[in-house]
Amino acid sequence: MPKLTVDGIEVEVPAGATVLQACEAAGKEIPRFCYHERLSIAGNCRMCLVEVKPGPPKPQASCALPAGEGQEIRTDSEMVRKAREGVMEFLLINHPLDCPICDQGGECDLQDQSVAYGRGASRYDENKRAVTEKYMGPLIKTVMTRCIHCTRCVRFSEEIAGVDEIGALYRGENMQITTYLERAAKHELSANVIDLCPVGALTSRPYAFEARPWELKKTLSIDVSDAVGSNIRIDSRGREALRILPRVNDDVNEEWLSDKARFQVDGLTRRRLDRVWIRKQGKLQQASWEDAFAAIAKVKPGSSIAAVAGDMLDCETMFAAKALLKACGSSLIESRQTGMDYAVSSLSAVNFNSTFAGIETADAILIVGSHVRWEAPLVNVRLRKAAKNGAKIFIVGPEWETTYPATFLGADVSVLSKLPKDVSDALKDAKRPAIILGGAGLAAGAHDAALALAAKFKMVTPEWNGFNVLHMAAARMGALMLGFAQQGGIKDLAAAKPAVLLALGADEVDFSAFEGSLKVYVGHHGDKGAHAADIVLPASAFTEKAGTYVNTEGRVQFADKAVFAPGDAREDWTILRALADALGVTVGFDSFAELQAAMIAEVPALGAEGVVDYGRDLPKGDVKADLGGEIRYPIKDFYLTNPIARASETMQRCSSELLHGVEFAEAAE
Amino acid sequence: MLSRGVHPLMAARHLEPDTPELRARWGSFAWNAENAEKAKEVLARYPAGRQRSAVMPLLDLAQRQVGAETNTQGWLPIPVMEYVAAYLDMPIIRVVEVASFYTMYNLVPVGRYHVQVCGTTPCMLRGSDDIMSACKKRGMHKGHTTDDGLWTLTEVECMGNCASAPMVQINDDNYEDLTVESFDKVLDALARGETPKPGTQLPGRHTVEPVGEPTSLAAMVKENHDYRGEW
Predict the structure, then answer these.
(1) How many other CB atoms sit within 10 Å of the CB of residue A660?
(2) In what order do the strands lie in the sheet with A49-53?
(3) SS3 A286
(4) What angle (nearest 5°) sits at the alpha carbon of residue B40, between those of residues B37 and B46?
């Protein structure tokens, strides 16, 4: 624990800390471009120079200098001021003066720091260097002349993403950042380099020239494209959400975001349901809210009403639906649209108990039926960290391209009843063994076997819980907490032959099983659910309503409303509230606050942000003799997993270009 | 390249475009029997798990094999770099980074002889401009290969032979103490397929020992001498 002084302020920092970190601990701002907390240290931008005594009589790069006992650091001396001005001047020598047409303008580190630490004017009189454009795919727009060679993007793709595809070619003044042969960056986290780039060299291609940062309203929200519950910021202007950026949350998404979560945003303005539709003679026709409610009331469902919750719903909507059905006298609610029927008597048996931060510390991990890279890209980042720390990783399921060393044990779950010796040895010897059961594993009937393995290898101890289920739906854990699960899954609903089926943003349901029911789709996109529906009630997407979400590790998080829903669309809960009137029942809430209070009264855990404690007792489970079944990953196309993404032109292009190899001609400039 | 509005310096070094013809010619590149042995030996120099460190000697080996196959100094087509990357089980972009950084790896085809004329101050003072003109007289010009495929001319910075300036590096050998005449002789010999004596071209000089009587530290020729009192 070295003690040192920074500008006369004494600080104590952990051993191994750098001088830059010591300066931050003392509350001093150190300008930097290449240094980033989550990446390795490069020390090539030289912006973080400080004066260090004892040491050579020259400024030193604080990001790459270990803090030592008794050092005297100055960040406010004349030497430091001149050094920063000098570095800034050199960086700006080859940087174009195109801030007025640069998308980074207003949120640019180079801009900010040249104002704060640079000279007022340039003395440079020669020609500036120019660099040819580099193609980096449909998401990343490049203007490489602006690049200052901090190499953050190179380090990100190598260290965090684990997909080595960006590099620095040539050297000196000719150094150029590029992907290999200018191919598109092809992984699920590629767009994070846009956030990392401290200048305008890598910017967002879909968002190019859309808005300036100071025009945008910033709303804190939660991503719903997968079950990770990434913390996001929705930037909106007027009625349109223009872009989505990650927020820092070390427990969830650190500061990364998957490309889908980031770029499906343009899907929010396309294929929207913005008016009421009623099917007449097989064709959907425009109608009014009154007509629609009257049509539903005409069926007189009584208690013969069922509700299916979609994958992107907030807890409030689900609770409102549950309250409505309860008032009608029905309990036919289900959230597992695709027909899964795993046991939910213990929520800890269907939860990601290790937590995302915890799984990094696991030392042997058995993944059963999860294409983690596609189902939860940010969990894959954690697994890569675990592997880097020496964890052994085994995967049951069809092979996919991992970003860490992993052993595939075959695609059939029967391998769980007779694990190879090296796998069982690794799990037995591990201090923190873990199992991750994915949706495909649950579908293949591996739930009991996974629980049995957790017991066999003592994965649950007072300090450690290594039993994990990795869901894919943002709504899943919240739905299970609210009881949106029947014993037999959605089959029970179909068997009850309800007069009315409420499909709440549910697009993956096999509607043919509900032939005789009046199918009412309450959702925001004209997707599979609306196509099958008899009545379509336009509702709000996740950006258009406040709500509570529970991610796959049981973490309760709140999202705010960024914009209003288009046209006649309403917030989901108000639709269900109005439907209660139409059906002549009372649900007991008239405002969002009352609804939320009623929900929290029923499930108190939903009232507090943070990880819910589901208890540590897992059902015993057993490895059935007839265990067997091929694992089939449900996600066939990473970019098109939900109605918003399917409506998004950006995601469609990613899908066809990055996954299906369609070539797009570059627009002539 | 200049016509495309690229900075003249950028044009100097670039990858040969990845075309179907290039793939057809080099796609099946693999070590020949002799180099396969050499590659194994190179790999063995590095500790287990650090095989990537062999990328530089292996790129050199690959360049030499390409040279042998094309009767030139050799260069690194993209499929050949990919072969080396696969051989070392490392990402191709990391290989290209190395190959594009070091100027001894040729990224575009070169001629039989790669004439690298040093133009840094000591050589310039000793007449490298004349050497350069001599090259140009033979039809070479900077950054290009002559039509007969014999010569590729590059101007380079200091190669550390200042004591025997001016100097030229041709493939693996240095030719030093050049005059236009002796340089012409070297080139003529190379063109005939002979191997002229590398090193100094000054008659009577062997390496970089003083020519004639020593002019500096003369008092130290016979015995140790303390100059400090004379400063």
Answers:
(1) 9
(2) A9-12, A3-6, A72-74, A49-53, A60-61
(3) strand
(4) 150
Which residue of B6, B93, B102, B103 is the best one to mutate when testing the A interface, meaning the one whose CB has the most A CBs within 10 A? B93
Residues of A in contact with B84 (CB under 8 A): none
Q: Is A171 on the interface with B (CB under 8 A)?
A: yes
Query: Exposed (0-12), middle (13-18) or buried (19+): which is A247, by Cβ within 10 Å?
Result: middle
Q: For the stretch A117-132, what's the b/e string if a residue is b when 16 or more beta carbons lie within 10 angstroms of its beta carbon?
A: bbeeeeeeeeeebebb
Interface residue B88 vs chain A (CB under 8 A): no
> In the predicted model, what is the mean pLDDT of residues A304-318?
97
What pLDDT, in 10s, does the model give residues B178-197?
A: 999 999 999 999 999 999 99
pLDDT, one tens digit per residue, over A408-425 is 999 999 999 899 999 999
Reported residue count of chain A is 669
* 8 Å CB contact of A179 and B93: yes
In angstroms, the CA A198 to CA A183 distance is 22
Q: What is the identity of the amino acid at A177?
A: I
DSSP secondary structure, A591-633, as one string: SHHHHHHHHHHHSGGGGSSEE----SPPP-----TT---B---
Q: What is the mean pLDDT of chain B?
A: 91
**Backbone phi, then psi, for A421, in 5-degree steps?**
-60, -40
All residues of chain A having their beta carbon less than 8 Å from the beta carbon of residue B15 are: 169, 181
Query: Smallest CA–CA separation between B198 and chain A, in Å?
Result: 30
- Of all residues in chain A, the one with the smallest CA distance to B12 is A174
pLDDT tens-place string over residues A511-569: 999 999 999 999 999 999 999 999 999 999 999 999 999 999 999 999 999 999 999 99
A131 touches chain B (CB under 8 A): yes
Strands (E), B51-179: 113-118, 151-156, 168-170, 173-176
Query: Cis peptide leading into B166, omega within 30 of 0?
Result: yes
